[in-house]
Automatic annotation (TrEMBL):
Keyword Coiled coil listed: no
Leader peptide range in chain numbering: 1-19
Name listed for the protein in its UniProt record: CRAL-TRIO domain-containing protein
Pfam families named in the record: CRAL_TRIO (PF00650)
Transmembrane segments: none
Species this protein is from: Allacma fusca
Keyword Signal appears in the UniProt entry: yes
Family matches, as InterPro entries: CRAL-TRIO_dom, SEC14/CRAL-TRIO_domain
Keywords linked to the UniProt accession: Signal
Gene Ontology cellular component list: cytoplasm
Lineage: Eukaryota, Metazoa, Ecdysozoa, Arthropoda, Hexapoda
C-alpha cells in the first residue's frame, strides 16, 4: 500500500519541487544557520580543489573501481547508501558538505578525472586513455523515506539532472539492485535524466540477472566480489 501511494505521490512531489528555485529549496535550512561571512566564503568555494570530509565520504560512497578491457574508467556509485533526507534534516555544515560532495562527483565525471594515464619507464605521462566511463549505480538499501523531504527531492533533481548534461561521456551504465521503490523513483525521473537513460540498463535485486552481464562486460579483477569480481579487490580511488 505504501509503495502504491508512492507511485502517485512522488511524481507530484517532483513537479512541485522542480517548480521552485533549486537553491532556495535545497539550502533553506543551511541559509538560516549561516551568517554573512560564511555565505561569502561559500561563494568563493572552488570545487576543483575541494576534498570530501571523511564522514561524508564514508556515508555517501562512490569510487573508481578499475578499468575495463578498453581502459575506460569503471565508476561505482552506491546510491542506495546515500541517506540524503537525514543529512538535510541535520542541516549545518554537513548538509553543505554533502552538496559539495555531489558537486565534486559531477565535476569528476564530467571532466573524466579518472581516465587512465599511460607512462614511460620513468613515470612520465605519455598518453591518456578514453574520456568515456562505465557507470555502475547500486541502489541496494534504497528506501522510500530517503526522499520524503523537499530538500532531498531537490537534491536528487539537481544532481541526477546534471548527469544528462554529459551523457556522451557515459559509454554505458548499469543500474543494479533496483528495488520497487528505486524503480518507481527511476521511472518518475526519466524525463529529467533524458538521454542519459538511453545508455543505461536497469536490473532488479536478483543477482542472477545482472552479475552474468557484469562479468561478460567487465574484468573480474576490476570489480568488488559483490558485483561478481575478486574478493581481494580494492577501489583504485575511493572518493566517497
Amino acid at each position: 500500500m505504501q509503495l502504491r501511494r508512492f507511485y502517485f505521490i512522488f511524481p507530484l512531489l517532483l513537479v512541485t519541487v522542480s517548480s521552485f528555485p533549486t537553491e532556495t529549496v535545497s539550502s533553506n535550512k543551511v541559509s538560516s544557520e549561516k551568517d554573512d561571512v560564511k555565505k561569502k566564503e561559500h561563494e568563493k568555494f572552488s570545487i576543483e580543489s575541494w576534498e570530501s570530509p571523511e564522514d561524508i565520504a564514508k556515508n555517501f560512497p562512490y569510487y573508481l573501481s578499475g578499468y575495463d578491457s578498453e581502459d575506460r574508467a569503471i565508476v561505482v556509485l552506491e546510491l542506495g547508501k546515500w541517506d540524503v533526507r537525514s543529512q538535510a534534516k541535520k542541516g549545518g555544515q554537513g548538509w553543505i558538505d554533502l552538496q559539495r560532495h555531489a558537486e565534486k562527483m559531477i565535476y569528476n565525471l564530467k571532466n573524466s578525472a579518472d581516465k587512465k594515464n599511460y607512462t614511460d619507464v620513468v613515470g612520465n605521462v605519455t598518453a591518456s586513455g578514453p574520456d568515456d566511463i562505465v557507470l555502475i549505480v547500486d541502489w541496494d538499501g534504497f528506501q522510500l523515506v530517503q526522499l520524503f523531504s523537499p530538500e532531498a527531492i531537490a537534491f536528487v533533481l539537481k544532481y541526477m539532472g546534471k548527469m544528462e548534461r554529459f551523457q556522451e561521456k557515459i559509454a554505458y551504465g548499469l543500474f543494479i539492485n533496483v528495488n520497487p521503490v528505486a524503480n518507481a523513483a527511476v521511472t518518475s525521473m526519466r524525463p529529467i535524466l533524458g538521454r542519459f537513460m538511453e545508455r543505461v540498463d536497469v536490473y532488479g535485486t536478483q543477482t542472477a540477472q545482472w552479475i552474468p552481464v557484469v562479468r561478460r562486460r567487465l574484468p573480474a579483477d576490476q570489480l568488488p566480489a559483490k558485483y561478481g569480481g575478486s574478493k581481494d579487490h580494492k577501489p583504485l580511488i575511493y572518493r566517497g
